[in-house]
Design goal:
single chain, about 110 residues, alpha+beta, 4-stranded antiparallel sheet, 1 helix, disordered N terminus
């Protein structure tokens, strides 16, 4: 059978499991970005807790798995630092957006 004769199938993303407790917790399960290629799973948890003058928003992302090759030549420590940096940057943009109406940092 030639490729052109093969039945067309829609590509589907891997399912993302989730848990939501309104006003308290949002938990998403799945791998982000380059981690999708390893045998494992990731859990991202957003938490909301009351704080003085408003609410406190927290974020954690944990992964566990097995990769029999290095991730683009980098060790796991380097990848975890890169992932932490990316998530911290996105979290800071969300915070600015909530506080100022714009995710972009103001330049002086």
């Amino acid at each position: 059978m030639l490729l052109r004769d093969a039945p067309r199938r829609r590509q589907r993303a891997a399912p993302c499991r989730r848990l939501a407790v309104p006003g308290k917790t949002l938990r998403l399960v799945g791998m982000l970005g380059p981690f999708q290629g390893i045998a494992g799973d990731g859990v991202m948890t957003w938490t909301i807790t009351p704080g003085s003058g408003g609410s406190k928003l927290g974020l954690t992302y944990q992964i566990a798995g097995y990769a029999n090759v290095s991730l683009r030549g980098m060790g796991y420590d380097a990848w975890s630092k890169a992932a932490d940096g990316m998530l911290a940057e996105q979290f800071a943009r969300l915070k600015r957006s909530i506080e100022t109406g714009s995710p972009d940092a103001k330049s002086n």
